[in-house]
Design goal:
The structure is a single chain. By secondary structure, the chain is mainly β. The chain contains no helices and 11 strands. The strands form 2 sheets. Strands 2, 4, 5, 6, 9, 10 and 11 form a 7-stranded mixed beta sheet that branches. Strands 1-3-8-7 form a 4-stranded antiparallel beta sheet, with no helix packed on it. The chain is globular and about 45 Å long. The protein starts with a strand and ends with a strand.
Length: 128
């Protein structure tokens, strides 16, 4: 089973940046037949929402509208890690951020229900 560990969360002022990391422990993601990775977030009292995704085969990326131009998802296969670079952070970005792994072959998957593995989450707090 894939174990995903997120790191890099913290507190930052509006306009600042953070980089989140999601490392898959043990074997490589390809060994687990992982074909896509995603970042989601959940703010208090709100449902979990899609932030960004990346396909493992071609590295295609896709984003929620509210983060386009500010966040960038990337991966480092040698480190078995997926990143989320977050720039120009806003107070409304405050949430717990989760990474997730999808075994199915898809070009686009913003649905939390269709991901197979999840990390424990990392808190991001943006103050005004």
């Amino acid at each position: 089973q894939v174990q995903l560990v997120e790191t890099g969360g913290g507190s930052v002022q509006a306009g600042g940046s953070l980089r989140l990391s999601c490392e898959a422990s043990g074997r490589t993601l390809s060994t687990f037949s992982i074909n896509g990775m995603g970042w989601f977030r959940q703010a208090p009292g709100k449902e979990r929402e899609f932030v960004a995704g990346i396909t493992m085969s071609r590295g295609n990326t896709y984003y929620a509208e509210f983060v386009k131009g500010r966040f960038t998802i990337s991966r480092d296969d040698a480190k078995n890690t997926v990143y989320l670079q977050m720039n120009k952070l806003k107070p409304e970005d405050t949430a717990i951020y989760y990474c997730a792994a999808d075994k199915a072959i898809r070009n686009y998957n913003p649905s939390a229900y269709e991901y197979d593995y999840w990390g424990q989450g990392t808190q991001v707090t943006v103050s005004s």
